[in-house]
Amino acid sequence: MSVVEIDRVEKHYGSVAALAGVSLTFADGEFFGLLGPSGSGKTTLLRAIAGFVDPDAGVIRLDGRDIGHTPVHKREIGMVFQNYALFPHMSVFDNIAFGLSVRGQPSQDIKRRVGEMLALVRLSGMEKRTPRQLSGGQQQRIALARALVTRPRLLLLDEPLGALDKRLRQQMQIELKQIQREVGITTIFVTHDQEEALTLSDRIAIFDEGKVVQAGNPHAVYERPATAFAANFLGDANFFEGKVLGPGRVAAAEGEIATEDPLTAAGASVMLAVRPEKISLVRPDAPVTPGNRLEGRMGQAVYSGMSTIYKVTVADRELTVFAQNRSGQDFAPGDAVRLEWSPSHSVVVQP
Amino acid sequence: MTRLWANALKTYLAVTLAFLYLPIAVMVLMAFNQSPLYKLPMVWDTVWFERLVDNDRLLTAAAHSIVLALANTAVATALGTMAAFAFARYQFRGKTVMQILLFPPITIPWLIIGTSMLVLFFWIGIGRGLHSLLLGHVALSIPYVVVVVGARLKTFGPVYEEAAATLGAAPWQRFWRISAPLMAPGVIAAALFAFAVSFDQFVISYFLAPPGWTTLPVEIYSAIRKGFTPEINAISSIIIFVSMGLMLIFARLYRFGGER
Fold it and tell me: How close A103 comes to chain B (CA, Å)?
């Protein structure tokens, strides 16, 4: 298994920087998600690791060795493409066998290995089918089997589940993670689906405009977003802009807000992010709890059974509050409400 | 109203097809008519086909045409396929200009192309002969091959070749095991096209062939000038059936090509 180091890698297309100095380390056996909007550079990085993109500057190391001049077919990688790219003129068996066959392995070994891989992805008996006769989920698993059969040092997944419908996607997420654990291979995957990134990854990196905005384990990145972009891209956030009053205190247009994050000197501008699900909604006459309090007026509510998303107007601004359907209580538009949250959930972010 | 309109369209189509096929049908019929003067009523006979067997000039010319067309098909398909592959999969300086320049030779009248080739070949000193004849045919066929194979290559992106590369396939393995089988229908269609372009070619064959060496279209032309015999109908009928057969295969392959 392998460690991948990305060291100040740059790639420019004309005047556009697809990668503007990216440094990341992918640990041995890690499942790492590259997350970001389209054009943020995550796919360019994946293709640079695969060898399809030649970086303008920087070094990519696989187990300490610079692979910049190694052609794709000698990098010992496995890759699953967005639409799987199963060879349409070959059977399932020949597709999986391809990597072994181009290495000139004896046919008995090939047969045994293909059988093992089909068992791993639970599609034994499908050898003779053609890719067209398979469902989307089956194609996905065959593509995974084909990529893993050569025992690559690194597995790259480009939007691996993007072509599947939601239910199948959730099922495949669990399966994908299970197979990755079983094989123990270092895996890097690209997605624009935040939920998928959170579910699958040991660690994630959020990309924007060719740069890594934040990297870390999903919990840390979600709970402590470093920038407004990270807070907004991974989940939702309410933002408060204001000036530092003193330690732990910020004066925002909506009122005074407390935070447990370290603040700069008094008078400096600061931005706070609060996740919608960290805020509780209560009636104005409810007993006061310690922490942040803002008075507001109820706006639109989107009810989805398990939970409700409320829009609340506070000092001419609309805030979003996410409430689980625990008490069955309901607010009508126009009701006066109070928003409450703990100071530990006011996160200082870079604008 | 709609039905009337549909019927009108059908009639129009039928008239058009009749206009296209009637002359051919008459010719084929006359090839089987015993009378050399096209007398009616028809008397069925295969005498003109039998006569062909003894017509050494036509048979030799037909053999020439077939050999030339086969040589042209081999050379033009190989070169054109490589060019199409380069256009579809690689970026290089002047690519767009080169792609655009492929098309004019298709529309420039053959008479002009033939004349200019003759001028050029004498100017550079290779003159007329089988070599310049093959050169001329190949030059004419390549644009068709590039267009047909290129259209096929557009139906699948480089992703299969990329997938093969990640699986450890070297460039030549990628070409022979992935690209080649995937573009095969296009290449076969292009080969049929190249064969037809060469087999039907008159002007260039007339200009560039060595003295005394004729291809079938040229031989038919000079035979007509001497006097029309139903033998011409007979050999033309054979050509029609062969080339229609080729075009049907072409159409079938091409449909397969667009399906994926």
Answer: 7
